[in-house]
Amino acid sequence: MNPSDLFVLLVLVVLLVLALALAGVGGGLVLDRTTGKDAQSGKAGLDLLNRQWRIERRIYRHHRLAGLLIIAAALFFFFKTWHFGLFVPGRLPSTWQLGWGLLVGGNVLSLIIGFILLLRPSRLKPVETLSNRWIELDIESLAHILRERPRLRGTLILLISLVCAAGFGTLLLMLIGY
Fold first, then answer.
1. 31 near 42, Cβ under 8 Å?
2. Contact partners, residue 64, CB within 8 Å, separation at least 6
3. What is the rounded CA–CA span in Å between residue 26 and residue 155?
4. How far apart are the C-alpha atoms of 34 and 147, rounded to whole Å?
C-alpha cells in the first residue's frame, strides 16, 4: 500500500466514526416521537446508552479461563506476525511503524493483564475502580434540545447523510482505482 491508499483508508475510518457518532446523537430523533408535553419521551430507548454494563463478576468468577483467553489472543497475534520482526519491523514501510508499535505494545500489555488475571486477579482491583467511574449522559436535555430546534434536527440529518455519501464516494473512487 502506498501513502495515498493509507490516507484514503484513514479518511474512511474517520468518516465512519463521525457517522456513527452523529447517528448515535441523531438516534434520539427516531426514538423521540412525542406530540404533547405530557407524553413520555424516548427515554426508554435512550436509557440503553446510559446503562452500566457490569461484567466484573462473570470475569472474576471464571478468571482462569478469561486470563487464558487473553493470553491466547495475544500469543496468536505474535505467532501470526512473527515473520515481520517483533520490535524492529524492517519489512514494513515507515508509515506503518507507529501502528505496528501500538499493536505490539497493546499485545504485550494484554499478555501482562492476562497473566495477572490468570494468577492473581485481585491485583486488578485498583485499575478496575479507576476505570469504572461513571459519566452520566444527560438524555433529557439532549431530547429537549432536539425537540425544540427542528433546524438542528434537520442539520444533523443532513450532516449524517453527507458523511455517509462522502464515505461511499471515497470507497467507490478507491474501488475504481481513481
1. yes
2. 118
3. 10
4. 9
pLDDT of residue 32: 54
Torsion 33-34-40-46 (CA) sign: positive
The phi, psi pair for 42, rounded to 5°, reads -80, 35
**What average pLDDT values come out for the chain (178 residues) when binned by 10 residues?**
67 75 64 51 59 77 91 90 65 71 88 92 84 72 80 83 79 72
- Would you give the DSSP letter of residue 42? T
pLDDT computed for residue 165 by the predictor: 80
Write out the three cell numbers for 79: 505467532
Q: What is the dihedral of CA 26, 32, 36, 39, to 10 degrees?
A: -150
* 84, 40 Cβ separation under 8 angstroms: no
Q: What is the pTM of this model?
A: 0.52
Calpha distance 19→26 (Å, rounded): 10
Q: Please give the grid coordinates belonging to residue 75.
A: 500469543
Question: Distance (Å, rounded) from C-alpha 93 to C-alpha 104?
Answer: 16
Q: How far apart are CA 149 and CA 147, in angstroms?
A: 6
Residue 62 gets which letter from DSSP?
T
